[in-house]
Amino acid sequence: MQSTMKPFLTIMMVLLVAAFFTTPALAGHGAKSASHAAVIEGGDTINISGIVSDSHGEPVNEARVLISVNGKELDEQHMAHSGKYVSTFMMEKDQIQTARIHIEGRKASFKTEVLEFSGSDMAQRGDHFYMQENITMQRVLGPAFWISTLVFVIAYALISFELLHRTIAAMLGAALMMAISYTIGTLNPEYRIVSFESAIFSIDMNVIFLLMGMMIIVGILKNTGVFQWCAYISYKLAKGKVFVLATILMIFTAVSSAFLDNVTTMLLLTGVAIEICISLSINPLYLLIPLVLASNIGGTATLIGDPPNIMIGSYAGLTFMDFVVALIETVIISMVALIIMSKFVWGKDYAAAKVENVTEYVKVLKEKYKITDPTLLTYGMVVLGFVVMLFLSHGYWHMEVSIAALLGASVLFTIALVTEKVELLELIEKDIEWPTLMFFIFLFILVGAVESSGLLALIADWILDLSGGNFYVAMALILWVSAIMSAFVDNIPFTATMLPIVAYLSTVIPGSENTLWWALALGACFGGNGTMIGASANVVTMGIAESKGYKISFIGFMKTAFPYMIISVAIAHAWLVIFRPA
Hints:
The chain has helices at 2-19, 24-27, 143-160, 166-182, 184-187, 196-201, 205-221, 226-238, 242-259, 262-280, 285-298, 307-316, 320-351, 358-368, 374-397, 401-418, 424-431, 434-453, 455-467, 471-488, 491-508, 515-527, 536-547, 554-579; strands at residues 32-35, 44-54, 64-69, 72-78, 84-91, 100-106, 113-118, 123-125, 128-132, 135-137. By secondary structure, the protein is of the alpha+beta class. The protein has a five-stranded antiparallel sheet, with no helix packed on it.
């Protein structure tokens, strides 16, 4: 009973999180006002409004604005996520012209900003007085900054070096930051890191629902045996030529990974590839390594191909076709480089493969890896084709890609249940990766917290100073730092950290347009090829190979993969410099 209730409880939690976005008090629509002014009959109405922003011009959410007149506090505003404040109060008739008005902006990790002006400076219409005063607050490295940075670094280390399950590490970090904010932060506002409302607001539900929808679609399709059947077709087309087989499988893996999750693609292909290699008397690693490299390269081509791209597209408002147009040529060139490198690195091993009675082995594969459910496959391909069509055109409809994924998943799910092709509980429990979805939710909270406390603004200013505002230097820094970092740490939290930074640099560096976003996407995705732990697909594939008795060391994987990662990033760098895709 407990195991069957678990997924439903998780679904309810996700839906409750989504519900916060429809609640104005939590979603941040408007500012909450605590007015201390009494209504004065026949008095003058005073209206003071403005925007509270930081030195980057970004709204400062949840700041407090206190308005005093002649030393008496008349109004207090608590900012929402827009940074706007509107204060309306009344004064005795004809008193405002000689009054001294004092506006004070406060928030943890920011220097208190004070504005003073005379009532005579206000615009007047009858007995109504108006003024707009924007407040620019400078960040300071206070207690909230240092505590949030420390918690973030510890959580990042736990995730990157797999000292704790990444979902638990992210949840622990997010919970700790909020707990500190509501305990010590209540006693001393300088320790207030992030509010519960801001934490919920920072979760990108577009990413969560897109991942969930694609997990359901892939989970249903894998019951048809289509992926294993494609491996059999690849062997049949190669006609015993191992290098040709490797090339076909690399291309198939890259194309599949452009539309499906890399980990799922490799999970479905790894076992088949190992069996084929054993029959050819070659080490399966000689085929699995190029396949997993191709998986990470292919996933770079589209918005849905790799989690970093999903996050970038959702944050920057980039469409599916934006990714395809900007990145597909770089991906194709990098795939050609991978095929050529595979020939040089493993060509002799492929040539020495023992190929005996190809025709008989093709018959064996045909019988073993066949389509198990043609009807469900037909439904699935129709629905997947419709979803891809919506992905391609979602910019025209002004529709988030998650809507397309959820629509396709719900339709295919309904068909599978009505026709009794899949078990409801089995698919919900096994094929939807709940730990991954929860990891993303807590990761967004973590990054939102350090963004609020000023860490990301500090990094953005450092990159801007280091680049001197030069586009080419900034692009190179983002690309190569992303690639090197993603080779050794999980590229998902790294990408989440870089999103606000790249957004700021894209606005202040002339002529950058979307190119800095492409530099981040290429660096994060290509960099995952650098080491065995650089991408989840790498870890999963090598883990399956080890369980079958084919183990490779961290250094052994890196000897081949890291040089290719450098080559592919260099190709991306040259492409960005020459063509500067917008």
